[in-house]
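Continuing from yesterday's entry. The apo prediction looked reasonable, so today I'm repeating it with magnesium ion included to see how the binding region is handled. Same sequence as before; SMILES copied from the compound registry.
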Amino acid sequence: MNAENTTTDSEADVAERRVLVFDTTLRDGEQSPGFSMSRAQKLRMAHALEELGVDVIEAGFPIASDGDFESVRAIATEVRHARICGLARAQVNDIETAARALQPAAHARIHIFLATSPLHREHKLGMSKQQVVDTAASAIRRACELCDDVEFSAEDAIRTEPDYLAEVFSAAIQAGARTLNTPDTVGYTTPAEMYERIAYLRRHVRGVEQVVLSVHCHDDLGMSVANSLAAIAAGAGQAECTLLGIGERAGNASLEEIVMALRTRHDLYRARTGIRTERLQPTARLLANLVGATIPRNKAIVGENAFAHESGIHQHGVLKHRATYEIMRPEDVGCARSSLVLGKHSGRHALRDRLKTLGYTLDEAAFEDVFARFKALCDRKKEVHDGDLEALAVGRDPEAAGPWTLEHLHAASHLGGSASASVRLLHEDGRRVSEAAIGDGPVDAVLRSVARAVGCDLALHEFSIRALGEGGDAQGQATLSARHENRNLTGRGVSTDIVEAAALAVLEIVNRIEHSTQRVATALAANH
Ligand SMILES: CC(=O)SCCNC(=O)CCNC(=O)[C@H](O)C(C)(C)COP(=O)(O)OP(=O)(O)OC[C@H]1O[C@@H](n2cnc3c(N)ncnc32)[C@H](O)[C@@H]1OP(=O)(O)O
Ligand SMILES: CC(C)C(=O)C(=O)O
Ligand SMILES: [Mg+2]
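Holo prediction written out below.
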């Protein structure tokens, strides 16, 4: 074993295998509550994932909605190196829709899934064993006519009879699938069981040597990464995972943890990935900023404390020899604490340098915009922290920008009673509207006054605020979800004043509504 556990990929020996990283942050990750992204945000994330070096980007489920279709198509158009994948049920319409969305891709994959476990066959699909085999095989055959790379997933594979799963996979290979995925859909398995399952499939699936075996683990019992690693140890050649482990329920296996476990314990796994590990922290932080999530301080690899030492005995050890308490080098995962303090006396060089370290390379116009907003922020805050800079660099979601902007806001809370707020909004067509309302707390009052001003029906559903830096003048990022016509819409806003941050989040929502109303009106006019 390497004493410092800092083995690099170039030291790999000849026996090592290349494990493919299949990222499903934009599909399984995005389909879970709290992580939805607009098309522009997904596109931005897809570029970052490509830069990170993932092999496959599962960009969405094209049949799910027009928005998902458009997102997959935009990613397939712009992202040229990574393979772009679209999910489809074992149904012709799903498959043809996925193929249309993927049509511009340089490298495309259609991913078909069908549940195989007794529970799903009987209670969900109402299909016999033979019907499942036939449905999967005919779906794969149709997909192979439209795309030269087809993956098949046996949903709930872990709770499927092993001999039957081997039969389904053998039929899938015969029908043309090139990757066979074994999902632990409900996060039920254990590492020993997963190892045994992959080893069993390697012994019993006909034609298995022609395909890549893949694994897709969920974290319901907190074992998704351990289970993925066990599958790799047993011979799986592809791991499906998400950044920060976001995904259905308790989430998916976390990409950064699988990748760094393979790298750090190369002595055990003898496997490498194509991930540029120094991009892990910046890419994970970009995701957190786009979806307004907080990365727990103690999160492995990318959390703020992952390389922090506070206790004296540890500090003493690290000062003598870093490897006493660190099994990875912070710089290998993109974690570099800056000693430069940015404030109102800082110039463009220091800001550009810091942004680059954080993973943001902006074009001249975008940089000048960030610089101007940075200076304005410095007038409101003594010190500007990394979180503040990331919020400035991520900027506003273009699909939520304009036409309404906030000109004036006043909010007051009354002890033991309700709160009140008044706003003045400016529309890009020149209209100015002032309104006031009372509510259950200042955020609700702000929401009601904005809703009244723009004449739309909104009810507060959820509200959260997270600090982007340290100290009493830290900026807050508000994430607010409101109910509108039976849908929950989410908006985000950043300010040193949390009520103003909430107002900006409400404005994102009303701007989204106005954009979609305009799109519908344009489409109707075009049809006439
Ligand atoms: C384990 C996973 O992560 S699977 C992916 C889960 N992700 C999602 O569901 C997000 C996107 N989903 C959606 O937008 C919708 O569910 C849609 C558009 C796909 C389908 O919507 P609807 O047609 O209204 O169907 P609904 O979702 O209510 O029910 C699912 C239907 O698909 C069928 N189905 C489920 N899985 C499969 C499959 N793999 N292959 C074929 N049919 C399937 C069900 O039996 C059910 O059929 P029925 O309508 O004949 O009863
Ligand atoms: C669609 C499949 C691969 C899935 O997400 C699961 O089974 O968890
Ligand atoms: Mg899943």
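Comparison notes:
- The first helix runs from residue 25 to 29.
- The CA atoms of residues 10 and 128 lie 50 Å apart.
Will overlay with the apo model tomorrow.
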